[in-house]
Amino acid sequence: MWLANVVMVKKANEKWHICTDYTNLNKAYPKDLYLFPNIDRLVDRAFGFTLLSFMDVYSGYNQIKMDPQDEAKTAFITDSGTYCYKVIPFGLKNAGATYQCLMDKIFKEIIGIDVEVYVDNMVVKCTAAADRCRALERLFQVLRKHRLKLNPEKCSFGVQARKFLGFMLTEKGIEANLEKCQAVINMRSPQTVKEVQQLARRITALSRFLSRSAETIIPIFNTLKKGDIFA
């Protein structure tokens, strides 16, 4: 029998989120190799539109039911007893792949036309107000059919620009996320391998906005080959 512990994680909005530590269960299960959409191509298809509507599914994983025979594997222990999930919990290794597969199936008729979807993030794109209403109607029909609920706090309708998957989408093009730029500027000179890796990830995320970015990041990667440089 699998049994996991519960941990509390503080979110960016300062609220606490209950998570279950499925480390052991995740080690035992093979990784789902379902292919996620390429973020760069997805973002390229979403800019240049007059009106954009951004939506986020409310606790998306929790809106998908577990297979009854697998519910016991999600068991977790608390002071008041042992429980298991009837919906997909956060923390399972293959939850993201399962969710993306579902989104690709239910939105297959409108993905790439009216909407772009990456896990629980969606953007509806159009060039006129009338088109926006029709596109949103098609999207909402799918949501209603499959009983998926949106998070109103993370939805914006009919806007001209907003962050999406770490990029700023506008009618004119794709702009760098200023928060990501500032994060690089505010970093101290790396003192450990972990800090070098963190810097490399942040620069890679901005690579499409950097001239000759591959050459820029090579010296950073080279420091990782020198095993004792931070000793």
UniProtKB/TrEMBL annotation:
The lineage of its organism: Eukaryota, Viridiplantae, Streptophyta, Embryophyta, Tracheophyta. CDD domains: RT_LTR. This is Reverse transcriptase domain-containing protein. Residues 1-169 form the Reverse transcriptase domain. Pfam families: RVT_1 (PF00078). PROSITE patterns: RT_POL (PS50878). SUPFAM superfamilies: DNA/RNA polymerases (SSF56672). InterPro entries: DNA/RNA_pol_sf (IPR043502), Rev_trsase/Diguanyl_cyclase (IPR043128), RNA-dir_DNA_polymerase (IPR053134), RT_dom (IPR000477).
